[in-house]
Amino acid sequence: MVRQHSRRIATIAVTTLLLLILIVVGTTVQVPFVALGPGPTVNTLGDLDDKPVVDITGTQVDPTTGNLNLTTVSVNDGLTLFDSMRLWLSGRYTVQPREQIFPPDQTTEQVQEQNQQQMSGSESTATAAALRHLDRPTKLVVDSVASDGPSSKVLRQGDVILSVGGTPVSTSEDVQSAVRAQKPGAQIPMDIERAGTRQTVTVTAGSRPDAEDVAYIGLTPDVVNADPNLKITYNVGDIGGPSAGLMLTLAVIDRLSPGELTGGKFIAGTGTIADDGKVGPIGGITHKTRAAREAGATVFLVPENNCREATSDAPDGLQLVKVSSLDSALSALDDVRSGKDAPHC
How sure is the predictor about 272, in pLDDT bands with cuts at 50, 70 and 90? Predict the structure, then answer.
């Protein structure tokens, strides 16, 4: 009896010790995972911290109502074992290896800086896509030149690009297509404007490091506003990444054109934007649709390539509208305003 009693006490003691160790480890030791969930949504037609999200000066601005909310995904980092289990079991979050969000060869600060750079680029492209759609003045300029690239001794930052290889260009995509039509080693004439003077320069194409048969000139073009009086600035807070492009573009168009895109409705969405108006897919679509519905949205603009994932966990009461370009998004909004059936996922 004494031995059995001693064994029982020992078993309880060991179990208690293991439980305490588990509790300590589970609540203090971080695991290499992050939890992704619904993030903040921002009305691009409204204010953030008492400042307009999209601020336009130097021209007449049309009044707007309703919402055009950009959506985000929250990233919960520094999780303990119990944190990750709690968030996963809640059903609102997905747990992923941390390295998928924060690559091991980059610091957290470097990733955040890249996200901010992507947002800045998204804002610039949103301006370009909106102004081109509205037929307002834009110009295609050299944003940067690779220091060791084929264009480094020929082109300068700020040069206005008029044609590449004899083909007129007005977007970044035009430049890419014109260069890809050439072969490595080709002499490519480029009409440019530098300091107000038009001239023709010649770039000898190199080859891409990842595709030796594809021409490369080491140039990053950018479509920019060409109206010196018009100023468009953005205030989105700490949001990073490129996925707000579509919604920012729609906000600029709504405020610079007569009538309303929303018809007073609460519309949210996501998607990258190119300066030619192409809408691209993003990550975390189901988290964004949930955040939008919880904020009050009834319509959500979904990039076409995200439709299958979006419909896998669509919130009740949220109409998922499929878009592939700026024109298709505007057409879909026309349908929503008029009560017609918009293209859906």
Answer: very high
Structure tokens that stand for 85 in this block: 């289990």
Core vs surface per residue 175-197: b (16+ CB within 10 A) or e: beebbeebebeeebebbbeeeee
Residues 234 and 164 in one domain: no
DSSP 3-state of 147: coil
Q: Could you identify the residue written with the tokens 């419909």?
A: 311
Could you say which of 225, 256, 277 is where a domain stops?
225
pTM of the model: 0.87
Structure tokens at 108: 């957290």
pLDDT in tens, 101-148: 888 888 888 878 888 888 999 999 999 999 999 999 999 999 999 988
- The whole-angstrom separation of Cα 187 and Cα 179 is 11
DSSP category for residue 293: H
Name the residues annotated as catalytic. Answer: 243, 288
- pLDDT tens digits, one per residue of 29-57: 576 888 899 999 999 999 999 999 999 99
Determine the residue type at 306.
Answer: N
Residue 142 and residue 159 in contact, taking contact as beta carbons nearer than 8 Å: yes
Which residues constitute the domain of residue 119?
34-135+229-338
Q: For residues 199 and 192, is the Cβ–Cβ distance under 8 A?
A: yes
Rounded distance between C-alpha atoms, residue 207 and residue 158, angstroms:
24
Same-domain check for residues 105 and 246: yes
| Residue 127, helix vs strand vs coil | helix
pLDDT greater at residue 8 or residue 46: 46
